Amino acid sequence: MTEKNFNEDNEPIPVSVITGFLGSGKTTLLNHLLGHPGMGDTAVLINEFGEIGVDHLLVRKLDEDVVLLNSGCLCCTVRDDLVISLRDMLHKRVKGDLPPFKRVVIETTGLADPAPILHTLMTDLVLSSRYRVDGIVTTVDAVNGARQLDIYMESVKQLAVADRIVLTKMDIADSATIEALCTRLSNINPAAPVIPADHGAVEPAYLFDAGLYDPETKSPAVSRWLREEAYAEQEAHDHHQHSDVNRHDDHIRAFCMTVDLPIPWAPFVDWIESLIVTQGDNILRIKGVLNIIGEDVPVAVHGVQHIFHPPTRLTAWPDDERWSRLVFITRDISKKAIEDSFAAMVGTAVEWA
Fold it and tell me: Given 74, 84, 111, 182, which residue has the most CB atoms within 10 angstroms?
């Protein structure tokens, strides 16, 4: 029995990460997802079964660390290193010891920084060839979220790198608190849709398939992935000018940089490497689509702090727009500083192109 039997087109398996601060509703959200029939063919990695109420969903125990749920979803504990767990799942999938899952969802602890998980998926040679990062889902407590953002940088980072934000406990928060929090979430991460959860219930379709490829057409969904219009709207309203310099999210910047002319690859790589070396801790996330000199198709790039994923050549431009677009989420780095560094290292070469 070969891997081809399980995944006929041999596409990398999408991986979504569910994160969020302590008490923000990750477990409640995951409980609802585990019972949803739309979660069939999904493997969910959690820390311990005891934290998830799976008894009423349990079909049978496949081994010590894996149970199969009524929805067709695998629920697996992570007792060892994430790399070991993900590689072991692939091995068992090929042998037929596990059902042919087509998606992986990883739940983090409440104080976790999602970046190391993304690093793992992007840098491990085996994992990066068989899995791909689909997106990060971050839960936020409507009642306590603002206070957590004030106190804990972990909470801000979890939001800053999110592709989807799930707002929980809205039934016990007043409308003014919710409105102020939603404005703040948009300030931190303008491109991430804020999705209300009804006592933890959210349709899986709202949370997943946030990556670069449309799973239905398998074509690049550049606009959906970058959502650069959200950054343009935020810049127009100058949302980042706060008065409280002690707030953690006052240090976070989110913006989109565009370049009209084709970019030479070598100077661009030098620039990115320079940013990673000098500012890696403060570059929370980079993603973009580039028009590279000598390439007739766009090149997608994705980075998290000190790690930059190998570039991916897309099959075609999704529309008539041929300019490069780079989205940055940074801490204590302004858009002007990024643009100036680009101009210094790459800009002259662009003008010569």
Answer: 74
**CA-to-CA distance for 346 and 344, rounded, in angstroms?**
6
pTM equals 0.88
The fold of 248-352 is Hypothetical Protein Yjia; Chain: A;domain 2 (3.30.1220)
> Of the candidates 352, 324, 338, 350, which has an alpha carbon nearest to the alpha carbon of residue 264?
350
- How is residue 313 annotated by DSSP? E
What is the C-alpha separation between 181 and 141, in angstroms, rounded?
Answer: 10
8 A C-beta contact, residue 292 and residue 299: yes
Q: What is the pLDDT of residues 269-289, one digit of tens each?
A: 999 999 999 998 899 999 999
Kindly state the DSSP code that residue 115 receives in the 8-state scheme: H
User: Whole-angstrom Cα distance, residue 151 to residue 147?
Assistant: 6
Helix or strand run (H / E) with residue 255: strand 252-259
Q: Which CATH superfamily is domain 3-207 in?
A: P-loop containing nucleotide triphosphate hydrolases (3.40.50.300)
